[in-house]
């Protein structure tokens, strides 16, 4: 399951990076054009809104597998290892429940949006349903990472992305 999670998270991380570049280029072009012509480029706002959704939700699983997410270990670092792992297990199981619900809820919204061909009305009519599917994919991929982390905790292995994990695991860069 680890390999599957990484095989899904890596391309999603690349897509998140590409969508960040799309936002950067679109906003830069819009600012330049607005300074020259006095008006915005039609569709750039709508494009960057969708790209922002892709950046955020496609990056979730990659952050989980690479250890680049925000983590606070104020409590777990002070607990005995067994208690800390138990607390992390509880957190990841709760995360699975919440993420499962988020996948279910966002899936229903994405299907509804697609069936209605939901549009955002701005300078251009922009379909919203692709961005709704980005949310579903991002939550589903993060759910897979959470399930892998539950399995890892139950088998005594480090979490995905743990910098103190197995040497050469490829989970995360280590500090020197």
Automatic annotation (TrEMBL):
Domain Tripartite ATP-independent periplasmic transporters DctQ component: 23-155
Keyword Metal-binding: no
Cell compartment(s), UniProt: Cell inner membrane
GO MF annotations in UniProt: transmembrane transporter activity
GO biological process, one term: C4-dicarboxylate transport
Membrane topology summary: Multi-pass membrane protein
Stretches that traverse the bilayer: 12-33, 53-75, 87-111, 131-151
GO terms under cellular component: plasma membrane
UniProt KW keywords: Cell inner membrane, Cell membrane, Membrane, Transmembrane, Transmembrane helix, Transport
Protein family membership: Belongs to the TRAP transporter small permease family.
Name of the protein this chain belongs to: TRAP-type C4-dicarboxylate transport system permease small subunit
Species of origin: Lipingzhangella halophila
């Amino acid at each position: 399951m680890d390999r599957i999670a990484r095989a899904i998270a890596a391309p999603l991380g690349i897509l998140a990076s590409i969508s960040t570049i799309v936002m950067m280029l679109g906003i830069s072009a819009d600012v330049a054009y607005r300074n020259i012509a006095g008006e915005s480029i039609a569709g750039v706002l709508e494009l960057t809104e969708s790209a922002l959704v892709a950046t955020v939700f496609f990056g979730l699983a990659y952050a989980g597998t690479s250890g680049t997410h925000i983590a606070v270990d104020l409590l777990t670092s002070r607990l005995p290892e067994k208690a800390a792992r138990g607390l992390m297990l509880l957190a990841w199981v709760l995360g699975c429940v919440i993420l499962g619900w988020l996948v279910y809820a966002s899936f229903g919204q994405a299907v509804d949006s697609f069936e209605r061909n939901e549009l955002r009305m701005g300078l251009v009519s922009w379909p919203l349903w692709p961005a709704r599917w980005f949310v579903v994919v991002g939550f589903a991929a993060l759910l897979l990472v959470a399930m892998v982390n539950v399995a890892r905790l139950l088998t005594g292995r480090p979490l995905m992305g743990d910098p103190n994990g197995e040497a050469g695991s490829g989970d995360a860069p280590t500090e020197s």
